[in-house]
Amino acid sequence: MSSLHRCLPWLILLLVLRGGGGGGPAVAAAGKVPAIIVFGDSSVDTGNNNFIPTIARSNFWPYGLDFADGHPTGRFSNGRLATDFISEAFGLPASIPAYLDTTLTIDDLAAGVSFASASTGLDNATAGILSVITMAEQLDYFKEYKLRLKLAKGDARGEEIIREALYIWSIGTNDFIENYYNLPERRMQYTAAEYEAYLLGLAESSIRAVHALGGRKMDFTGLTPMGCLPAERMGNRGDPGQCNEEYNAVARSFNAKLQQAVVPKLNKELPGLHLVYADTYDVLDAVVRKPSDYGFENADRGCCGTGMFEAGYFCSLSTSLLCTNPDKYVFFDAIHPTERMYNMLADKVMNTTLHVFL
């Protein structure tokens, strides 16, 4: 891994994905799911990092240029995230609010909320790199949210919302590309396979914690082909400019164990749990390999700056190089998808997994 790759991405903050644009999953019958509750990283952070002291932020232009009136919200994309489109598909609000947004009341959060934090991971050490919200802290916020919900709506309705809500996790990429492959500590402690097992154990613990608090309908989204992120292509010393296939192999291995071991195990052991695995690897991989088949013109660079390494604040410093049409790009910055790509990911998840909750 190049020294530039080691320093820039986390001096400029990299993270997971996000995307969407125009259209979206067909709106489902309202009422089957009263709320969408989200845990994770920058792929699903709708603005929580705006309210904590970290550089892992995107609440400035050009982020959000296609969001409503062009207002940057803290989403790492030009518009909405996949979870926003999923919320809309369930007949809920078209955008999911951030829990730490101090302008919102519990009534504003009752139909959906994100506890996610850009640059975090399942591993607390990952969150510590840029001082963001750990998974344990996200779960603590969820406990607080449940108490606030019951106070505002009454015990019975509060418990019903918690029980019938759909819980979505999107997390794990940063544990590998920010932490394991970018810093020495975890590599000295674990082989890649051992670290993968460690992360899957942490994922299982998080699911158990939400189940203990009343959650029953859950989706855990698998890792995308993280070796094909523009920043990872740039840092691919073995094959410059090409996808890092070692990273992609790790993502596939993680996903296989999540789907074949963790999900069936927890569905068997936890009463009333309905946990599904959502695959996003295949659809993003297919788009990256043959972007023109899906109406994209560029899949190896982001829309922002040179598209090779810019993310976060570096995008705001490179606006003169901003692309003219983000819909032609798979990625908005060097790590995160465009709204149009996020929309495609949401379609995939709704059509293959989440329709079971309608």
Fill in the keyword field for this structure:
358 residues; alpha/beta; Rossmann fold; five-stranded parallel sheet; two-stranded parallel sheet
Please give a structural write-up.
This protein is of the alpha/beta class and 358 residues long. It has one domain: Rossmann fold (3-Layer(aba) Sandwich), CATH 3.40.50. The chain has 14 helices and seven strands. It has helices at 3-11, 82-89, 106-109, 124-129, 135-153, 155-164, 173-180, 184-189, 192-212, 230-234, 245-269, 281-289, 313-316, 339-352, and strands at residues 36-40, 112-114, 166-170, 217-221, 274-278, 298-302, 329-331. The strands form two sheets. It has a five-stranded parallel β-sheet, with helices on both faces. Strands 6-7 form a two-stranded parallel sheet. The chain is globular, with a radius of gyration of 19 Å. It starts with a helix and ends in a 6-residue tail after the last helix.
Write the layout of secondary structure elements.
Blueprint: H1 3-11, E1 36-40, H2 82-89, H3 106-109, E2 112-114, H4 124-129, H5 135-153, H6 155-164, E3 166-170, H7 173-180, H8 184-189, H9 192-212, E4 217-221, H10 230-234, H11 245-269, E5 274-278, H12 281-289, E6 298-302, H13 313-316, E7 329-331, H14 339-352
Parallel strand pairs: 1-2, 1-3, 3-4, 4-5, 6-7
InterPro entries: GDSL, GDSL_lipolytic_enzyme, SGNH_hydro_sf, SGNH_plant_lipase-like
Organism: Triticum aestivum (Wheat)
Protein name: GDSL esterase/lipase
